[in-house]
Amino acid sequence: MSCLAITFIGPKTKNGRRLFENFVEANKSSFWNRELVEAVDSVIYMGFMRPSTLFVSGPQIHLQAVRTAWARRVLKPAEGYSISSLGESFTV
């Protein structure tokens, strides 16, 4: 299973889980993009690296939906943040 690394710009946080939950919640409201809603509903919080990088995993089809939303500039950041990058993070 592969991982995505999502890097945010915003206030420093010590709670990666909360950042993840806010990110998921922000994208669940994209009712017009069912693939994205399904994808963020299924991704799994894998970890967090300071200052604000999330590592998420999930089925390949859902990770691709997140990548596509990022490429189309419709992926929403957690409230108070912006997304600066999104890329593959290979698990060991």
TrEMBL record:
UniProt GO MF annotations: RNA polymerase II transcription regulatory region sequence-specific DNA binding
GO biological process: regulation of transcription by RNA polymerase II
One cellular-component annotation, GO: nucleus
InterPro entries xrefs: STOX1/2
Protein name: Glucuronosyltransferase
Lineage, uppermost ranks: Eukaryota, Metazoa, Ecdysozoa, Nematoda, Chromadorea
